[in-house]
Amino acid sequence: MARMKVTVAYDGIDFAGYQIQPSGRTVQGTIQSVLQKMHKGEDVQISASGRTDAGVHAVGQVFHFDTEMNITSDAWGKALNAMLPNDIFIKDVVEVSEAFHSRFSAKSKEYHYKLLVSKQPDVFRRNHMFHYPYPLIIRDIQKACSYFLGTHDFTSFSSARTEVADKVRTIFALELIEEGETLTFKIKGSGFLYNMVRIIIGTLLEVGQGKRKPDEIMTIIAGKNRALAGKTAPAHGLYLYQVNYQENYLENHE
Predict the structure, then answer these.
(1) Which is catalytic among the residues 11, 53, 92, 153?
(2) Which of 38, 39, 98, 126 has a CA that sits 20 to 30 A from residue 175's CA?
(3) Closest Cα partner for 125 from 174, 176, 180, 85?
(4) Contacts for 123 with CB less than 8 Å, ≥ 6 apart
(5) Residue 247: which residues within 8 A CB-CB, separation 6 or more?
(6) CA dist list (Å): 183 to 33, 110, 115
(7) Parallel, antiparallel, or unpaired for β 57-67 and 130-131?
(8) pLDDT tens sequence for the chain (254 residues)
(9) Predicted pLDDT at 250
(10) Active site annotation includes 166
(11) DSSP state letters, the chain
(12) Is this prediction's pTM over 0.85?
């Protein structure tokens, strides 16, 4: 039995999310269906680093699965991509230690959130960037970003539907990159709660509009109350960019 670590990119706009559901097209369901065909009807479960919601994209989602098929890593990638739809692409496949788990072995995750700040929308990017037609005070957003850094209880920045009891997470980096009309938030952390990144972005945009002061972020975090933070930013601007692992879990047995 071999354990395969897979890095996958997908356009989330036509999926009902990553996680398999009784109805609706999902990333997990689509990939598992292809693996089932390759394994002559045998069910093959994949385990991902985490779930993404409907409309959320991935540049570097990671999942793993166990198989008794003796195929090289390169052949796995080619075979999967030949059978998968064109809104999913397998970027990399490697054999790893049985101790590796795509979720529990992760050290950190990085998300990017993209906005188009312009008066007019772009019909060609409407599914992949949040169109934001309002002027923003960039220096205030950048100042507010600094208050998220470090280890905090992020209850105020998680959905009321979040089921986990421990809402303490560490944010290693949060920056805003300007490229013309395109703004990209880059956030890296030990892990993220349900809707956490999108609520952080929605709150930062309120800071950028002058509706909040940058240092209000500290008060919101301390309050541990979802009602204190801003609106949840739309899903289609969000990308799971990268998942990072400890090297000892990535031993290649080929």
Answers:
(1) 53
(2) 126
(3) 180
(4) none
(5) none
(6) 37, 16, 5
(7) unpaired
(8) 999 999 999 999 999 999 999 889 999 999 999 999 999 999 999 999 999 999 999 999 999 999 999 999 999 999 999 999 999 999 999 999 999 999 999 999 999 999 999 999 999 999 999 999 999 999 999 999 999 999 999 999 999 888 888 999 999 999 999 999 999 999 999 999 999 999 999 999 999 999 999 999 999 999 999 999 999 999 999 999 999 998 765 555 44
(9) 57
(10) no
(11) -EEEEEEEEE-GGGSS-SS--SSS--HHHHHHHHHHHHTTT-----EES----TT-EEEEEEEEEEE-----HHHHHHHHHHHS-TTEEEEEEEEE-TT--TTTTEEEEEEEEEEE-SSS--TTTTTTSEE--S---HHHHHHHHHTT-EEEE-GGGS-TT---S--EEEEEEEEEEEETTEEEEEEEES---TTHHHHHHHHHHHHHTTSS-TTHHHHHHHHT-GGGS-PPPPGGGEEEEEEEE-GGG-----
(12) yes
> Residue written as tokens 């080929």?
254
At position 158, the amino acid (one-letter code) is S
